[in-house]
Amino acid sequence: MSASATTPIRHVSDTALWVAIYRAMESERPDAIFRDPFARRLAGARGEEIVRTMRRGRSWAWPMIVRTALMDEIVMRCVREGAGAVLNLAAGLDTRPYRLDLPASLPWFHVDLPDVLAYVREQMAGEQPRCRLEYASVDLTQPDGRRELFARAAAAAQGKPVLAMSEGLLIYLAPGQVTDLGRALHDEPSIRWWLIDLASPGLLKMMEKNWGKGVAAGAPFRFAPPDGTAFFEGAGWKEAEYRSMWDESLRLKRSMPMAWLWNLIGRLYPKKKRREFRRFSGVVVLGRA
C-alpha cells in the first residue's frame, strides 16, 4: 500500500487536525489527564477521517497525549516562575489559552499562517480566553516578520521573561531552518525558555516505516538531530530539562500497549543503550547558553 493511501494528510496543517482528535479522545475518558472541550470541534470530520484511515492511527495517540500533558505542566510552571508572555509558534489548533488556569493579564501570542488562524478564530468564536490572547499571522521563515513578533512579545512581557514554545513544529523543518529559528529566538534577550518536542533518528525511521517518508508529500519528517539537544548549542541554546516520552508515559499511565514487557526487556540492555532508548523521543526545555 502506498504512503499516500496509508497517510491521508495532504498538508502539514492537517497534522493539527490529527493531533486534535487525540486530545479529544483523552478528554472524553473518565480518568482524563487533561480536558480539552474544544478539541473535537476543531478536529472536525477531517480529523476523524485522518485517524480512522491512517495506518495504526489510534495506537499513536499515547505519545501525542503525553506530549500535551507534559507541555501543559511546563507552561504552567514557567508562568508560576514569572513568565511575562507566551509565544506559541506554529500553534495550530492549540487551545491552552482557553483551557489552562492562566493569569488573566498574561499576554499569549498564538502564531500561525493566515488560513490556520482564520479557521481557529471561526471555530472559537464566542469562547472567552482566560488570558490576553493575540492571534499573530507570521511566516516564521521570514526574518523581518519574526523579529518584529519577538520584539512585540518582549514588549508585552514588560521586562519579565518570555516563554517560547514550538509543539509539533521542528520535526517538519530542515536543520538549517531550525538553527535560523533558534538564533532568531536567542537574539531577543527576553526569551528565556524555548519549549520543544524532539525526535531521535530512530523514531524517524520507525515513523517512516509506518507511513513512508513522511505523513504525506506535503509534510515530510525532516528534523531529528543525531546529537540530540547538543544540536541547539550552535544557536545559543542548551538543554535545561529533558522529559523522556517513555518515562512520562509510565508516570501518567498513558503508555503503549505491552509497555510493561518492553520495560522488562529494556533492563537487559547495556546502560548506554537504555539511555539511548530514553532519548528516543522527549519534551525539552532549552535555556539560553
Rg measurement, Å? 18 Å
Shape: globular
Number of strands: 7
Number of helices: 12
Mean pLDDT, to the nearest integer, reads 90
Order of strands in the sheet with the most strands? 3-2-1-4-5-7-6
Low-confidence spans? 1-6
List key phrases describing it.
289 residues, 12 helices, disordered N terminus, globular, 45% helix, alpha/beta, Rossmann fold, 7-stranded mixed sheet, single chain
Any chance you could write out the topology, listing elements then pairs?
Elements: H1 3-6, H2 14-27, H3 39-53, H4 61-80, E1 85-88, H5 96-99, E2 107-112, H6 114-123, E3 132-137, H7 143-157, E4 162-166, H8 175-187, E5 191-199, H9 201-211, E6 237-244, H10 245-252, H11 259-266, H12 271-278, E7 281-288
Parallel strand pairs: 1-2, 1-4, 2-3, 4-5
Antiparallel strand pairs: 5-7, 6-7
Helix pairs in contact: 2-3, 2-4, 4-10
Quick summary:
By secondary structure, the protein is α/β, with parallel strands linked by helices. It contains 12 helices and 7 strands.
Walk me through the structure.
- This protein is α/β, with parallel strands linked by helices and 289 residues long.
- The protein has a single domain (64-288), classed as Rossmann fold (3-Layer(aba) Sandwich).
- It is built from 12 helices and 7 strands.
- The chain has helices spanning 3-6, 14-27, 39-53, 61-80, 96-99, 114-123, 143-157, 175-187, 201-211, 245-252, 259-266, 271-278; strands at residues 85-88, 107-112, 132-137, 162-166, 191-199, 237-244, 281-288.
- It has a 7-stranded mixed beta sheet, with helices on both faces.
- Helix 2 (14-27) packs across helix 3 (39-53), helix 2 (14-27) crosses helix 4 and helix 4 (61-80) crosses helix 10.
- The protein is globular.
